[in-house]
Amino acid sequence: MTAHENAVQRISIVGTGYVGLSTAVCFASRGYDVIASTRSEDKVRTINAKRAPFYEPGLDEAVRTSIESGHLHAEINRSEAVRQTEVTFLTVGTPEKADGTIDLRYVISASEDIGRALTRKKTYHLVVVKSTVTPGTVRGPVKAALEEASGLVAGRDFGLCMNPEFLRQGSAIRDTLYPDRVVIGEYDKRSGQRLADLLEGFYGSGIPILRMSLESAEMVKYASNTFLAMKISYANEMARICERVPGVDVSKVMAGVGLDERINPKFLNAGAGFGGSCLPKDTKALCKFAEAQGYSAPLLRATLAVNQAQASHVAQLALATLGEPRGKKVALLGLSFKPDTDDLREAPSLTVARTLLGAGARVSAFDPAVKQVSQPGFEGLDYPSSISECLAGAHCCIILTEWEQFKRLTPDDFIQSMATPAVIDARRIFDPHEFGNRLTFLAVGVGRELDVCRTSVRDND
Ligand code: UGA
Questions:
Q1: Which runs of E-coded beta strand occur in 336-387?
Q2: Of the residues 177, 189, 192, 240, which has the maximum number of CB atoms within 10 A of its CB?
Q3: Quick one: which atom of ligand 1 is closest to the CA of 282?
Q4: What are the residue numbers of the active site?
Q5: What domains are defined for the chain?
Q6: Could you tell me the pTM of the whole model?
Q7: pLDDT (tens digit, 9 = 90+) per residue, 352-376?
Q8: 386-413 residues labelled b (16+ CB within 10 A) or e (exposed)
Q9: Whose CA is nearest to atom 37 of ligand 1?
């Protein structure tokens, strides 16, 4: 058999969230035959009708072309998906439990389904876990579920790997096609080689592929995300110090810091704090995991504490400009945890909105992608349909997400619409000099004479 005949061509993906569906369309776009399996009939219908089931730039188009080319189809039956393919990527979610640990329920039930399907296969099958799981999960409960359900033995009868995913929401497809590196955790050499061959074929040369133990690969994911979280909290801590020193601007400071090649400029933007479904969850989970191993992880705890305080600090800056907040209108520009997504999970905007509503302010929010906050506690929020409606009659405006259309606003846009033009730039999209000269302007990390930042610190700390 030639190398080509031996090459993996048919891939199944279990789970169709950001990771699963991005992986599916990217493999399909490069000629692999992909079956994306999900338990949701709705999602199966939507994908097979050539549409993405959630908002992600470029995904709709990628799903359409993949389905039209015949290289992708969605399937409700996991077992069928596994049976018809040579490799299965497991990409289901690992949501946060109330105690901060991860919920493995979906990973285990998917592993059992895959295991059952393996009993009907005559050829070697490789199972690759992409879901974010703490070290020991793949060798422990995942392998046990696969072996128990199949009656087969990992390493001997089927392959098992961990292949963490590093894509970001908002740039999921680009990140999947052009990752900085690929990490393969292997249960045994044969499994690792099988996945390395597949991924070398997919990426070509030029992208480093690192092979290591299952546990190291599981840890790479957490170590990477917590490092990113720590960089952001570091920038936010520097911002809080800079705010106490007139003439200092944290964005200039971080530019000066980031050009040191040992540090690099990315993820040093001070702002309202990190949100989303990954950085907060993974930092909490690694904290809990470390604790369970008898280590208290002070750096990770501090990373979370600084982050929590940052959103409250932004709300305090607004309250300080409002004076008596009761009855005053605050305009929030941006709700999503970052631009180009409608995702509100752990968004700093929620903390800010909750604090302002609690203080008796009237809060209006405009976000290009989020139409409303459906969770309890936000019933008092008002959702105007444009930026200008949101600003109209407001006493303070807070920039909470750096959407492109907000960056184009000028001081006049605020002056003309607002009752008292005061802007809190919590995402650093405006020039402090241009805005500071025209209206009341506070920006995260910009030193000022006002005592606002000190008041806010006493309230918070
Ligand atoms: C993050 C990681 O960046 C991905 O590499 C990883 O694969 C993903 O989690 C995951 O585990 O699935 P994501 O949550 O999509 O990706 O978003 P990020 O771009 O990392 O942004 C997270 C938060 O940090 C946002 O709220 C953003 O506003 C904030 N942030 C980011 C800052 O406040 N400052 C920065 O300099 C960068």
A1: 362-366
A2: 192
A3: 11
A4: 278
A5: 10-207 (3.40.50.720), 242-456 (3.40.50.720)
A6: 0.94
A7: 999 999 999 999 999 999 999 999 9
A8: ebeebbbebbbbbbbbbbeebeebebeb
A9: 267
